[in-house]
Amino acid sequence: MSPDATRDRAHVVVGYLATPSGADGVELGVSLAQALGAVLDLVCVVREEEPDGTPGRAPYQQLLVERAHRWLADGERIVAGRVPVATHAPVAESFTGGLLDTATSLGATMIVVGGTRDGIIGRHSLGSISSELLHCASLPVALAPRGHADRSDARLATVTVAVPAVRRGDDPLPVATDLARRAGLAMRLVCLVSSDDHTDIDAEASARTRTRQIAAAQAALDDARARLGTGAEIDALVGDGDTLEAAVASLRFGDSDLLVVGSSRLGPPSRVFLGSTASRILRSTTAPILVVPNSGDA
């Protein structure tokens, strides 16, 4: 695809390797690009070979680049013409660094990757690349669950936002709202409540604490709905469980859902930083997940 054809369109970048998890990332990238009317950019980073005076080092580097382009052709076949696609094989010191630099140069909306293949089908598990991105990226990072490549007929329909009980810099609502508006997707607000954060010594005290938690969660949802400034009816649900995992399990997620969560408020401003709560949510949901950078607000 020519640069002129992509100049005025949004870009969704997929970090690609010719592996099953790479295919998972491509499939999620296609869904997001379809929703946003965006160009899908497949990026396969080639590790830079340090020159050491050895004859043949430059030709070997070129062979690696040519192999990357062959892998990217495999990725294009997965896309199968469903969205406009461009391919990139930058040479960089690290896959993560090359991917971030390429996404920045393209003005990308987000970066998409698949997880590792050692987890349970339909669940998330982090590899080295996805883990690095989820602790340093300046763009939202979307992660496809294992086996997402089998959902090729699924199109995104709903953005589910994990609203924190207290407004702070890790609030994902602004990014999720913008995504839903641009893509014409429905929105659902959820706030999670569990017993993990309190250790009451008796059942009565525990019940009082849970009642306060649920009230605080409902207030947070009401506040979030008010901030949306829309007359549209938006579902707002409290996910309640003895553990955070049980609270996530109490909510239904379909193939058309995208779950949006915030970064830890303890992370650096304007960067993605996957905190402990978001990590547990990620491991508990079957939906693709989008982690947004910390806004830096208090």
UniProtKB/TrEMBL annotation:
InterPro entries: Rossmann-like_a/b/a_fold, Universal_stress_UspA, UspA. Residues 11-144, 176-293 form the UspA domain. Pfam families: Usp. Belongs to the universal stress protein A family. PANTHER family: STRESS RESPONSE PROTEIN NHAX, UNIVERSAL STRESS PROTEIN UP12. This is Universal stress protein. It comes from Williamsia deligens.
